[in-house]
Amino acid sequence: MRERTIASHFARAVLRGAQRHGYDYSDLLQQLGISPELLEEPRARIGPEPFTRLIQALWLALDNEYLGFGKAPSKPGSFAMMCHAVIHCRNLEKALNRGLLFYSLFPDAPRLTLTREDEMIRLSLDDSQLWDPDHFLTEYLLVVWHRFGSWLIGQRIRLEQATFSYPRPEHGAEYDLLFSCALSFSTAKSAAQKSSGAQSSLLFHSRYLNMPLLQDERTLKHFLERSPADLLARPDDGHSLTSQLRRLLSRDSARWPDLDAVATHLHISPQTLRRHLREEGTSFQELKDQLRRDIAIYHLSRNDLPLQQIAEQLGFSEPSAFHRAFKKWTGLTPGAYRAQES
C-alpha cells in the first residue's frame, strides 16, 4: 500500500516554530520543491517524502529536534543517541524506561512518564509547558514513542485509547491516521480553563512490556536514516474497521469494489458496515475518495502518467469528472497541482 498523503495543515504547523524563531524558510521550501501556494490551500495534501525532508531540514536549520516548540532546544542527534542507549535492552519495558530516563536528564525537555493502570500502561506527556499552538509537538512525540516502541518489538502496539489535554482540533479528522483508536479530547475551551496537571496520553496493554526487542545495531542504522522524521508521515496500521477497509481497498485500486462486495468479504451486512463506519466518523464513499485522492497525488507528483490515464485508473469515465472531484478533495485542479509540484 502506498503511504498516505499528509494534510497541508501539518506542514504549516511545523513551520510555525521556524516563524517564531525568525527563520526565513522560503529558500528551503524552494529547495525541497514544496510550493508555498500549495501549503496555503487548507484542503491540499503533500506526499510523505517531501514532508519528511521538510522536518529533517528544519532540524538542521533550527539546530533543534523539537523544531521550536519546546521550552528548550533538543540538539540534532539526541534521538539517535537515545536509540543507541536502548537498543540492547532485554525487553520493551526496559527500553522505554531507559529512553524516558535519557530525556529526563535534560531539565527543560518535555516530560513523558509510564504508569500502570491495572492491566494497562499509560504513556503520558505533560504538554502544559510547551509552546505548541497547533499541538504539533504533542502529536509528534506521542506518535514517535508509539511507533518507535512498535518497531523495537517488531509488531504494532495496539492502542486502546488516546487522550488529549485540549479540545478536538479542526484537523481532528487526521487523528485516525495518527493513532487509530478511541479518542478522548478535553472539553476546556482555553488554556486558562485547563487544569495545570492536564496531560495527553496513550493507553495500551501491559503485555507488550515483556516482549523482547527484535532490533539491533544494524537495523537501527537503517531506521535512523529517516526516523523519527518519517514516523508522522506513516499511516498507523490499526485495527479499526476504517483501517481494515483502507487496507482492503488498497490491494487493487484498479477494480473498486462496491459496499455490498466489501460487506460480503467482511462477513457482515451492508447496513452493519454503514453503521460501524458512521460510529467511526466516516463512510465507505469517504474512504474510497481518500484513497483515490492519495493515488492521484502519488502520480501527479511523479509526473509519470497523463491526466486521462490517472482518471481511468481511479474509475472516472470522463477526465472532467476527475477534475471536479480532485478540486473538491484538494482545492486545486489536477493540472494546477502538478504545476505546483513540478
UniProtKB/TrEMBL annotation:
Keyword DNA-binding: yes
Keyword annotations of the record: DNA-binding, Transcription, Transcription regulation
Superkingdom as given in the UniProt entry: Bacteria
Domain HTH araC/xylS-type: 243-340
InterPro entries in the cross-refs: AraC-type_N (IPR032687), Homeodomain-like_sf (IPR009057), HTH_AraC (IPR018060), Tscrpt_reg_AraC-type_HTH (IPR020449)
Pfam families in alphabetical order: Arabinose_bd, HTH_18
Protein name per its UniProtKB record: AraC family transcriptional regulator
Organism this protein belongs to: Pseudomonas izuensis
